[in-house]
Specification:
- The chain contains nine helices and eleven strands.
- The longest helix has 14 residues.
- 31% of the residues lie in helices and 16% in strands.
- It has one domain: TIM Barrel, CATH 3.20.20.70.
- The chain has a nine-stranded mixed beta sheet with strand order 6-5-4-3-2-1-7-8-11.
Length: 294
């Protein structure tokens, strides 16, 4: 890079002290997963057949604020968590999200889930600031054929996603692909993997996960039934409270499911984190999450 005039050398900040306390100890020991999730919102521009939260354009938004998420990220780091997740709804309906992600990444690495359909030129330009930061965009792509993919996710979903991914990769932004299916045969999976490789996403950044029978999926007769022992204990913060897992704060017939609610209190983050840890400690030894869902 060419510099027109001298620039002062940055002053090195002192290394942060390692987090200490029961949550940090549990994460370090592998008893508590290191990721904290934030549901930025529940509304969405799509109405997917298997959506856990019955998201759509007209649902209750149930938004977290930018400040809540940035402060939550800071507290997560101080408690000893190691990663952050952001999900929805469609997360990029929140206009402040690109800047918030950059701030959150200053605390911990972030993965943000998105349907990949909103990446017009303006949003792509805003996201350029994330290049080189520990932020990954996890984009949903379920099938290698447009018709099969769009039958579950909505018209033109496939076209928009395969157009957006190389634009993001070309800007230096890490992209992951999430495939959510009841089943997929080897030939179809091979074609899907060939597609994501052609789009610039390596195999290590392709996640395949089952449909979970909660929310709209349950009404459609789709998915595997998962109770608390099968779900990863990844603390999940929403506008309605803190939940056991990102698969917890689901919605059916417009009503929030509370069977996996930990606390209504979300601030300070230590309150739900320590409550979840107590629940983990009360579980019989050997009851680990059995489903490969993330």
């Amino acid at each position: 890079m060419t510099v027109a005039e001298p620039v002062a050398e940055p002053v090195a900040e002192p290394a942060a002290e390692p987090a200490a306390g029961p949550v940090a100890d549990a994460v370090a020991a592998g008893r508590l997963p290191g990721r904290v999730w934030f549901y930025s919102n529940y509304h969405c521009n799509l109405v997917c057949t298997y959506c856990l939260t019955e998201s759509g354009p007209k649902v209750a938004r149930r938004e977290l604020s930018r400040d809540q998420m940035v402060e939550g990220a800071r507290q997560a780091r101080e408690l000893g968590f190691t990663e952050l997740g952001v999900t929805g709804g469609e997360t990029f309906l929140m206009p402040w999200l690109p800047e918030a992600l950059a701030e959150m990444a200053g605390s911990l690495p972030v993965v943000v889930l998105t349907n990949g359909t909103l990446f017009g030129r303006r949003l792509l330009d805003e996201l350029e600031a994330l290049a080189g930061l520990p932020v990954a965009l996890q984009i949903s792509l379920d099938r290698p054929d447009p018709d099969a993919n769009d039958a579950m996710r909505g018209p033109q979903n496939f076209r928009k996603v395969v157009a957006a991914i190389p634009e993001l990769v070309g800007r230096g932004i890490t992209v992951r692909i999430a495939t959510t299916v009841e089943s997929i045969d080897d030939a179809e999976l091979d074609r899907l993997c060939a597609l994501h490789r052609d789009l610039g996403v390596p195999d290590d950044d392709h996640v395949i996960r089952p449909i979970v029978a909660r929310g709209r999926a349950l009404d459609q007769g789709l998915g595997v039934h998962a109770a608390l022992p099968e779900l990863p204990a990844e603390l999940t913060i929403t506008a309605d409270g803190a939940f056991w897992s990102p698969f917890g704060p689901t919605v059916r017939s417009g009503a929030l499911d509370t069977d996996l609610l930990i606390t209504r209190t979300t601030q300070p983050l230590s309150v739900p984190a320590e409550a979840q840890l107590r629940l983990l400690d009360d579980r019989p030894q050997g009851e680990d999450a059995a489903l490969n869902i993330r």
